[in-house]
Write a structure and sequence with these properties.
- With 338 residues, the protein is α/β, with parallel strands linked by helices.
- It folds into two domains: 219 residues, Spore Coat Polysaccharide Biosynthesis Protein SpsA, Chain A, CATH 3.90.550.10; 95 residues, UDP N-Acetylglucosamine Acyltransferase, domain 1, CATH 2.160.10.
- Helices cover 20% and strands 28% of the residues.
- Strands 5-6-4-1-7-12-9-13 form an eight-stranded mixed sheet, sandwiched between helices.
- Strand 2 and strand 3 form a beta hairpin.
- The chain is elongated.
Length: 338
């Protein structure tokens, strides 16, 4: 079984962290997000992956020059222009020579759902496609997928208004597809699998779903990018990860609680870090406080500064001594776009 992994997006929700780095190359407890995805696929016997690339393809190619990642072989398919989700799948599958049943996963989803069971369910239902479904409290941000008694998808409701969703089971971003699905995707324009291809398959009765309540997280926002890392150090996944990289330096008088500290990071005397992620090479200077926030690689939080309420500091950003930031983005992505 082969897989297409979608990693071509601009990651705008995670700016400024993604202003220079693709989202799936951001570290999750020291390991690039794409490696977490690859390891998860390898655990279910998938050893060959086509990466559907768009934004900064060089970052992936330079990181994995031997074409292997997390125990799987990589093939690179770089879109000449953004083709949306279905277009990206078609382009990558054709570029990689996929001509049999294959798996598709979104590269910003971290999950323990069983791809093995999803593949088995697909083989049993005889459909063109089978979607993994996961339950969420608020389905309004996602594609909601109600099922018939035989697990056939009865509708595909993309981002319904709050309180109007027909179900709380959403599209989990992992699919098993037959190559015939590629024939449903136009080759000459962007095509959305959620808004065009899946609804068409629903009308033809060829789309099925499988519900799975295993751990699942879309790591594409600052809030969830922070949370997936805390989940790993909390033991919410099968393996509990170490919170502090062995090369990080934490002063004896500093206080670090429930936080991830990356390689080469430095937490100075009297600094306080709580419920936060401090990426590699970053510094939290004397007496500074970081709470519920993300400090990007090589960023600096100056003496006595306070950073909180899901502030995100980009690579190399600097917070001035005694400055107070709440819910900020530094540098401001809105200003960077002008």
């Amino acid at each position: 079984m082969r897989a297409v992994v979608l990693v071509g997006g601009f990651g705008t929700r995670l700016r400024p962290l993604t202003s220079t780095t693709p989202k799936q190359m951001l570290p999750v407890v020291g390991v690039p997000m794409i490696e977490h995805v690859a390891v998860g696929l390898a655990a279910h016997g998938i050893d060959d992956v086509v990466l559907s690339l768009g934004y900064r393809p060089d970052a992936f190619i330079e990181a994995y020059p031997d074409g292997t990642c997390g125990g799987v072989r990589l093939h690179y398919a770089t879109e000449p222009e953004p083709l949306d989700t279905a277009g990206a799948i078609r382009f990558a599958a054709c570029h990689g020579g996929i001509d049999d049943t294959f798996v598709v996963v979104n590269g910003d989803v971290l999950t323990d759902l069983s791809v093995t069971d999803l593949i088995a369910a697909h083989g049993a239902n005889g459909g063109e496609g089978t979607i993994a479904l996961t339950p969420v409290e608020d389905p309004s941000r996602y594609g909601v997928v109600p099922l018939e008694d035989d697990d056939r998808v009865s509708a595909f409701v993309e981002k319904p208004p709050p309180g109007e969703a027909p179900s709380n089971w959403i599209n989990a971003g992992t699919y098993v597809l037959e190559p015939s699905v590629l024939d449903r995707i136009a080759a000459d324009r962007p095509v959305s699998i959620e808004r065009e291809v899946f609804p068409e398959m629903v009308r033809s009765g060829s789309l099925f779903g499988r519900q799975d309540d295993a751990y699942w997280a879309d790591a594409g926002t600052p809030e969830t990018y922070l949370q997936v890392q805390l989940d790993l150090i909390d033991g919410a996944r099968p393996v509990r990860w170490d919170a502090v990289d062995p090369t990080a330096e934490i002063a004896a008088t500093a206080s670090v609680r429930h936080s991830v500290i990356g390689a080469g990071a430095n937490i100075a005397d009297g600094a306080v870090v709580v419920d936060a992620v401090i990426l590699g090479g970053a510094r939290v200077e004397r007496g500074a406080r970081v709470e519920g926030s993300i400090v990007g690689p090589d960023a600096v939080v100056g003496d006595g500064a306070a950073v909180g309420d899901l502030t995100v500091l980009g690579a190399g950003a600097a917070v001035e001594p005694a400055q107070v930031l709440s819910g900020a983005r530094v540098p401001d992505p809105a200003l960077a776009d002008h």
